[in-house]
């Protein structure tokens, strides 16, 4: 998992980890299992033996997994192309029990995983709809339930592909959350620029130089280009809304 964080891909070490995992799959606890499959997924090391060896034990021990671990496993198996129906059924059923404890990242990973694996789980879709609506309405009072733009992108993409019966209420709430995150990004960028200008002015006064002047206020769309909001995020969100056939003006 540490190598994944540093984006280092030592193939001999990964091969050794894969061999050890296959030989000792039954000894892995839920936390270790989720970390291993997630790290191999992020490092793009696709060893079918590992995922096949761990799947039966995940199904058997899934009741001991927390929301984040369920999400990591679902995301990893889906991204690496393993569509284990029994596994996803167990993961979906377990996540239904844990959905209230899941953070935004876990919600988005589950949406992505089930959509990518093309697994239909109607009860999970309904629960996700309700949870997203709650977090975008009553839940806005609780900072720990806030959803970042990256999570909103994956949720929009996943929900648009998980079912053909789209809940327009959920998409409307999701739209409001996405809009709020974009406005927040623009506002934060303006604040950063004001702080930088203030620092530059102080430095200029110390050196008795001409103080830099504040530039004309840029429109929101120009300021958005300076933020860390990815064009890929926005295009994926637009594609999801196109699939949902929701009419927002």
UniProtKB/TrEMBL annotation:
- Tell me the InterPro entries matching this sequence: FAST_kinase, RESC6_dom
Q: Where are the transmembrane segments?
A: none
Q: Name one GO cellular component term.
A: ribonucleoprotein granule
Molecular function (GO) terms listed?
A: RNA binding
A Pfam family hit:
RESC6
What is the superkingdom listed in this entry's lineage?
Answer: Eukaryota
Q: Which GO terms describe its biological process?
A: mitochondrial RNA processing; regulation of mitochondrial mRNA stability
Q: What's the protein called, per UniProt? A: RNA-editing substrate-binding complex 6 protein domain-containing protein
